[in-house]
Amino acid sequence: MIEVKNLTKRYGKFTALDGISLKVEPGQVYGLIGYNGAGKTTLLKTAAGVYRSNGGHILFDGEHIFDNAKMKAQLFYVPDDIYFTPYSSMNKMADFYNGYYANFSFDTFRSLTSVFGLDPAKPLNGFSKGMQRQAELVLGMATNPRFLLLDESFDGLDPQKRQMIKNLVIEYAKERGAHVIISSHNLHDLGDMCDRFGLINGKKLALEHDMSVFDNDYVKFRMAFAEGDEKTEADFSDVELRKFSADGRLITVTVRGDADEAMAKIKEKAPVYLEKFPLSIEEIFMEEVEGVDYDFTEIFR
Ligand code: ATP
């Protein structure tokens, strides 16, 4: 398990993270969301043992990471600013990582290189930014990490590669019981791959939630009633109503809880038209964050 406990990180007098706590269970993909400058990279770099924290701690299976070579060999961090030395190629990097990571697999390396269509002999500095991200991820996966930290790993990737990486990471985490933290400033990037997400705002974790709420907990119904049988919000007191709007005879309601039960209760009111819709990720998110002081519009861009 990854346990971040009351973590504080300062750069000189500037506090970037102030008392952040979160947990990542084996097999879990944890999405870290926040604006530019919110502190995502700081958290990941501190977790990766690049920075030393100024308070609190991060434990990987109960062990501190900083100056812990044994645990670092089980962790792979893909930064958002990837740097390769001049003339290095994926093959050279594979040899280098093989010397450091005891579980490095050349089989995995070769098969993923070919799946992603990357030339492992070519100088990495000649790769595009998106190709460099893919290359580093392929190398990272070949180390068979128990802990995988990905910083803005979808930046600059085309939709097809994005999906490939998502599938790869999800399958890897589930099959191996690996722990994954992935950051993004965009919830859309993470919505369909994470089990849990946390939102960093104001140096703190403003919100944390299981992604299952996006699948199960909310549903939207659109309906109309016969003339003379118009309904008002008060008529829906038997369902857990989150939102009610009426446009002429067309009524739209958002309901929380068991969708079938809500559907049955609405049917009892005898609508002449009734349809069920899933909520968009934005709509659910806005429901979940009601009352949290944050301008969320940016993270849906
Ligand atoms: P982005 O989405 O733009 O990558 P982020 O959420 O990853 O942003 P961080 O890079 O962690 O944010 O930065 C958090 C805060 O810490 C910012 O205010 C940033 O200016 C500051 N900061 C980051 N690195 C340093 C550093 N090396 N020295 C001083 N301040 C820093």
**Fraction in beta strands:** 25-35%
Can you give the mean pLDDT? 89
Structural class: alpha/beta
Biggest sheet overview = 6 strands, mixed
Can you tell me the CATH class of the largest domain? Alpha Beta
Total individual domains: 2
Task: Report the CATH topology name of the largest domain.
Answer: Rossmann fold
Shape: elongated
* Succession of helices and strands: EEEHEEHEHHHEHEHEEHEEEHEH
Strands of the largest sheet, in order across it? 6-7-8-3-9-10
Q: State the end-to-end distance.
A: 32 Å
Q: Which ions and ligands are bound to the chains?
A: adenosine-5'-triphosphate
Task: Provide an overview of this structure.
This protein has 301 residues and is α/β, with parallel strands linked by helices. It is built from ten helices and 14 strands. The chain has two domains: 2-202, Rossmann fold (3-Layer(aba) Sandwich); 216-289, 2-Layer Sandwich (Alpha-Beta Plaits), CATH 3.30.70. Strand 9 (196-201) and strand 10 form a beta hairpin. The protein is elongated, with a radius of gyration of 23 Å. It starts with a strand and ends in a 13-residue tail after the last helix. The model has no long low-confidence stretch (mean pLDDT 89). It binds adenosine-5'-triphosphate (ATP). Residues 11, 14, 16, 34, 36-42, 80, 185 line the site of adenosine-5'-triphosphate (ATP).
